Amino acid sequence: MTTTPQHMLLLKKYAYLLIIIPPALIFLSEQLWLAFGHHNLFAFSTLIFVYLMVPVMDHIIGKDAVNPDEEKEVPALSGQRYYRWLTLLVLPLQLVALVYGGYLFMTTDFSWIGAIGWLLSVGTCSVTLAINVAHELIHKDTRTEQWSGGLLLATVCYSGFKVEHIRGHHVHVSTPEDASSSRYGQSLYQFLPHAIVHNTANAWKLEAQRLRKAGHSPLSWHNELIWWNVISIAFAAMFTLTWGWMGLVYFLGQSLVAITLLEIINYVEHYGLHRRKLDNGRYERTTIEHSWNSNYLLTNLFLFQLQRHSDHHANPKRRYQVLRHHEESPQLPSGYATMVVLALLPPLWFRVMNPRVEHYYQGEEHQLTNAS
């Protein structure tokens, strides 16, 4: 796509409103089965859109090579409230999509296949809204953004991400100490259980350490994880009281799908990359070379530029609208939706990604041995 940098920045400003599409797909799916029948088939509509249509459109629309000017545009863009309010708008969108998705789950005569398709679809919507946007919000300093990020994570029962991602993942990224950084030769199915269990436990450990340093007991009201988990329990209770045990199955099911997709994306973002250990025993500073980058415009608009992940890790406080593309960063061959599907098929994943990792460490092949 060819346009001037100024026009591209203006286009992107309003194209971030595409964030309404994931929850809209919940409503669209219902309209499709009301119009044409086949509700068990249309339960998969969101998956078809995300994992088939978006990858095709990514490659048709192409990449976004525009970076905002650091001196003239970044300060102004960073301070515009529009971008902040857009992320805060996602909280009510997530709540509406979650509740209406539950209503449809309970009032539609799905087969077991259709029910699974619906949980996968709602979970995909939740990872796009709740976890992706919470990721943006929890990196910011304002109380409103912090609380909104925590509430979004509570809707998918993964509040530990708020603690572990900031104090664990960003500190230890691309080292053996980070469970969210996949190693060269490690399959997704080796990675996933360890990542989910370790990151959940590590969040509680990190919060306990913080509280002890501040002179508080980990089992006190100062522990933010207790509060966020109480909110998750309240959501679970609400769905159970409203729709019985199947309401609980729905809420926990979509949460599990969202959590799993988050960790699959973590697998994609850091596969095989690691920070070199220095002579003093410490690791080199995190740079734009320690995360995979993807610059396909459409998916970046849907995900508030999460795919510009290299710049995010090098500069965690940068707001999504001013994240930059770095051509020298390791580049994924496609957008996240395609890479998630590849990750689910380890032989195909290794065939596509291992040569890229090996090229990155060309001349330092011993690094691959140490990383695996």
TrEMBL record:
<keyword id="KW-1133">Transmembrane helix</keyword>
<feature type="transmembrane region" description="Helical">
    <location>
        <begin position="82"/>
        <end position="106"/>
    </location>
</feature>
<keyword id="KW-0560">Oxidoreductase</keyword>
<dbReference type="Pfam" id="PF00487">
    <property type="entry name" value="FA_desaturase"/>
</dbReference>
<comment type="similarity">
    <text>Belongs to the fatty acid desaturase type 1 family. AlkB subfamily.</text>
</comment>
<feature type="transmembrane region" description="Helical">
    <location>
        <begin position="249"/>
        <end position="268"/>
    </location>
</feature>
<feature type="transmembrane region" description="Helical">
    <location>
        <begin position="225"/>
        <end position="243"/>
    </location>
</feature>
<feature type="transmembrane region" description="Helical">
    <location>
        <begin position="112"/>
        <end position="134"/>
    </location>
</feature>
<dbReference type="InterPro" id="IPR005804">
    <property type="entry name" value="FA_desaturase_dom"/>
</dbReference>
<keyword id="KW-0479">Metal-binding</keyword>
<protein>
    <submittedName>
        <fullName>Alkane 1-monooxygenase</fullName>
    </submittedName>
</protein>
<dbReference type="InterPro" id="IPR033885">
    <property type="entry name" value="AlkB/XylM"/>
</dbReference>
<feature type="transmembrane region" description="Helical">
    <location>
        <begin position="42"/>
        <end position="61"/>
    </location>
</feature>
<keyword id="KW-0997">Cell inner membrane</keyword>
<feature type="domain" description="Fatty acid desaturase">
    <location>
        <begin position="111"/>
        <end position="340"/>
    </location>
</feature>
<keyword id="KW-0472">Membrane</keyword>
<keyword id="KW-1003">Cell membrane</keyword>
<keyword id="KW-0503">Monooxygenase</keyword>
<keyword id="KW-0408">Iron</keyword>
<feature type="transmembrane region" description="Helical">
    <location>
        <begin position="14"/>
        <end position="36"/>
    </location>
</feature>
<keyword id="KW-0812">Transmembrane</keyword>
